[in-house]
Amino acid sequence: MYKRILLKLSGESLMGQQGYGIDPQRLSQYAQQIKAIADQGVQIGIVIGGGNIFRGLSGAQKGFDRVKGDQMGMLATVINSLALSSALEALGQKVRVLTSVRMEPIGDYYNKAKALRLFEKGNIVIMAGGTGNPYFTTDTASALRAIEIEADVMFKGTRVDGIYTADPEKDPTATKFDTITYDEVLTRGLKVMDMTAICMCKENNMPIYVFNMDVVGNLEKVISGANIGTLVKP
After folding, report:
1. Helix (H) / strand (E) containing 31
2. Apex CA 150: angle with CA 54 and CA 5, to 5°?
3. Over the stretch 7-28, which tens digit does the pLDDT of each residue have?
4. What are the structural domains of the chain?
5. Which of 8, 11, 75, 215 could form a disulfide with 52, with the two C-beta atoms 3.0–4.6 Å apart?
């Protein structure tokens, strides 16, 4: 059993079948799965992407200033974080949102000591706003927060069931890895997380487990040790 985990959630997955924004059914499913493992005593830190609302890089390609585009993306992650915190509170779960830039009373300003105190009091801690800096993705933010809070593992919940030799949605011959090294991910150029995030995890020996979060019950399975995804390790 893990004592503390960092769960990275995809903003796109929150869209469900809608194509944009937040699907209430998907949000509720996520909250129920997360509360189920919190009830087992696992301390949970969460980082959510913002791609269901706004993605800074794609905004820059359409004429937005890159820095402002990334700041808009950071705000999108805060919206998603507030939505998930509300869904968890509705289930009776203690939860706090911490933000990487000051925006009280929306959330408290993030620091490691505060996050650890909240874990010990039984709170799920959602860390919003990315790293607080432009040019960094929420993948990098999740790697940074996982290392900071001394998580046992970083779980990356996606819409695919692990890491493949190629994109399984485009290449039917793609084969799945049960385990893979950080170096092999980088050498093969696999689109698991961005290079900065992979390098940070490699340098700090932070294992990454990639799995399909959109299948209800999968989060409990990976917490119990089921081999349903891909483990990235040294």
Report:
1. helix 24-38
2. 60
3. 999 999 999 888 899 999 999 9
4. 4-233 (3.40.1160.10)
5. 11
Q: Structure pTM?
A: 0.95
Predicted pLDDT of residue 57? 65
CB 227 within 8 A of CB 178: yes
Give SS3 for 21.
Answer: coil
Once rounded to an integer, what is the mean pLDDT over residues 206-230?
96
Taking phi first (over 0 means left), then psi (-120 to 50 degrees means alpha), and beta for anything else, what does residue 75 get?
alpha
**CA-to-CA distance for 163 and 143, rounded, in angstroms?**
17
Kindly give the residue spans of alpha helices, DSSP state H, lying in 121-181: 138-148
Contacts of 148 (CB under 8 A, 6+ apart): 112, 115
Q: In terms of C-beta density within 10 A (0-12 exposed, 13-18 middle, 19 or more buried), how is residue 101 classed? A: middle
* pLDDT on residue 55: 74
Rg (CA), the chain: 17
By C-alpha distance, which of 217, 220, 206, 210 is closest to 177? 210
